[in-house]
């Protein structure tokens, strides 16, 4: 599980980071809201811990940006103790609000509770939504199989995960680095050639003409996206 801490107080960041790492979490840190947002745009994060009062971008504004794109758990850890601040935080979409000074043991317990709730929610959602269809492509998540026009496509494990990532996020552009981190789950290593090779293999399976792809489009200078202009181009989840 990856947790992001955004706080302009280095002592707080270090204390929380060390403690959470001792409890088995991977921890990323940022000293302001903008740094945190840059991390969230490129990394898969399971939970965010935010201070309210930060330079460049404060916690409330960062939460607004997060909620435009994600439902990941967000906790406030802040010296703002007024009830109106707490109410505002929850109205903006916070999942928890802990004030400073705080008990580090309580923080760890609350982090664990938020992650458990989110995992239970995602598990129930995944069980209810096991098949995704987009154009003539479909994926059965329960059986880990992909199909085109009802015929099964032979894909390797990484190719399947890549296609699933695109199918779950149609029309969204991903950089090669984002795709590598999402599928290979390597925190510090990145190989764009590996991504390109797997994209080529997927195209050979799903495209009528891999040289003129109708699904997996290259966005020059940025990366790739799944985009189909034919009929049935809406994502359907069953």
Protein model, in words:
This protein is an alpha/beta fold and 238 residues long. The protein folds into 2 domains: 2-126, Response regulator (Rossmann fold, 3-Layer(aba) Sandwich); 131-237, Winged helix-like DNA-binding domain superfamily/Winged helix DNA-binding domain (Arc Repressor Mutant, subunit A), CATH 1.10.10.10. It contains 8 helices and 13 strands. The protein has a 5-stranded parallel sheet, with helices on both faces. Strands 9-8-7-6-13 form a 5-stranded antiparallel sheet, with helices on one face. A 3-stranded antiparallel sheet has the order 10-12-11. Helix 1 links the parallel strand 1 (2-6) and strand 2 (26-30). Helix 6 (157-168) packs across helix 7 (176-184), helix 6 packs across helix 8 and helix 7 crosses helix 8. It is elongated, with a radius of gyration of 20 Å. The chain starts with a strand and ends with a strand.
Structural class: alpha/beta
> Strand percentage, roughly?
15-25%
Radius of gyration: 20 Å
Instruction: Using the alpha-carbon principal axes, give the shape.
Output: elongated
Q: Give the fraction of residues assigned to helices.
A: 40-55%
Strand order of the largest sheet: 2-1-3-4-5
In the residues, how many domains can be counted? Answer: 2
Count of distinct strands: 13
Topology:
Elements: E1 2-6, H1 10-22, E2 26-30, H2 33-42, E3 47-50, H3 59-67, E4 74-78, H4 83-92, E5 96-99, H5 104-128, E6 131-134, E7 137-140, E8 145-148, E9 151-153, H6 157-168, E10 174-175, H7 176-184, H8 192-206, E11 216-219, E12 223-226, E13 236-237
């Amino acid at each position: 599980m990856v947790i992001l801490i955004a706080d302009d107080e280095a002592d707080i960041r270090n204390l929380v980071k060390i403690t959470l790492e001792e409890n088995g979490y991977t921890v990323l840190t940022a000293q302001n809201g903008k740094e945190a947002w840059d991390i969230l745009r490129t990394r898969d994060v399971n939970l965010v811990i935010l201070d309210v009062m930060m330079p460049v971008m404060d916690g409330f504004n960062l939460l607004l940006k997060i909620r435009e794109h994600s439902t990941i758990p967000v906790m406030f850890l802040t010296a703002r103790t007024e009830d109106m601040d707490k109410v505002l935080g929850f109205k903006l979409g916070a999942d928890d609000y802990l004030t400073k000074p705080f008990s580090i043991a309580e923080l760890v317990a609350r982090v664990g509770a938020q992650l458990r709730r989110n995992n239970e929610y995602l598990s129930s959602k995944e069980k209810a939504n096991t098949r995704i269809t987009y154009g003539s492509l479909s994926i059965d998540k329960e059986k880990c199989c992909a199909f085109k026009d009802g015929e099964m496509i032979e894909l390797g494990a990484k190719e399947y995960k890549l296609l699933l990532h695109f199918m779950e996020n149609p029309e969204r552009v991903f950089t090669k680095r984002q795709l590598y981190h999402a599928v290979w789950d390597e925190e510090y290593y990145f190989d764009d050639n590996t991504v390109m090779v797997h994209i080529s293999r997927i195209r050979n399976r799903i495209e009528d003409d891999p040289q003129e792809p109708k699904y997996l489009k290259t966005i020059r200078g940025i990366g790739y996206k799944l985009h189909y202009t034919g009929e049935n181009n809406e994502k359907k989840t069953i």
